[in-house]
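Backbone shapes recur. Consider a single case.
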Amino acid sequence: MKKAIIYVFSGTGNTRFVAELYKKYLTDYETTIYDVRSRSILETDNLNKSEKKLVLKKNKREAFFDVPSPNDFDLIGFGHPVYGFNVPLPFFEFAKLLPKVQEKSSKKAFVFKTSGEGLYINEFSSQKLIALLEKKGLSFVSDRHYVMPYNMIFRHTPSMVKREALYANAYAKLSCAEILADKKQNVHISPFLRFWVPLFRIEWLYYRIAGPTLKVDMEKCVLCHKCEKNCPTENIHFDGKKFIFGHRCTMCTACSFGCPKCAISIGLLNGWRINGSYQIEKTSLDANIETPKIGKEYDDLHPWLYKKYYRKIDKKLLEAGISL
């Protein structure tokens, strides 16, 4: 049986949820999901600049030692959340370390991303990642964007979460069917947005600066260490008295989102903080939660944040004969 791998970077679990759907519907492949995590750089804080560079290079090599090579698989997938209309910096750094494919012919690859709103610009967030990986010999046939529950700004209602799970399932089914049929889907390139999207990469710098401003209220904290364990960049360290946040933060909010006591402040963005799991799978199956409006009836949704996105997906699903 042919083999596939999906490299996934996920903070609060939305992208991981979609990756499981791809694994389910890529029926011709034995699929492995590899969760991308970054090695902590907290231990370099007391080193000078040249020493720090050496340690970082050593850490990257060691952290990368057990990463499955794309050369061992027939189909290569990449899944990431959208941060500031771009791919997260740690995931891009990870992709830079992947080896070039050894085969003369390019290997088939796909990418998908998740965000809390259906803005058109989000569909172009993978451009830099795709350009990098194409130079390594990968040939992208699919680029899909999935709306999933917000991990900051405002909390999605259970009905919204149910809709998002239903659509993610149907859209992943369609995407995988087209990949299996060797039908090339649109890999988004826009000359106009190619100019605008990079402007928001200033967040890559901002998060590195803002990371240490995150704080834990130790009076509320119960020392469950979930924040430390769940951080995808291993940016949180407990020194015996308090939690220290380093410069590898991507503001995925996995720490504050999953804190059982809502004890974590996320600095300047604390007013946008959301706390508590959406339990997407459970919510999608809960008969007591109102079934969301589907099709052309989207009176409960913002017109340009969600309506256009869902109407476009409806059209694609209808053409493919896939029902929600």
Q: What stands out?
A: Residues 40-47 have pLDDT under 50 and may be disordered.
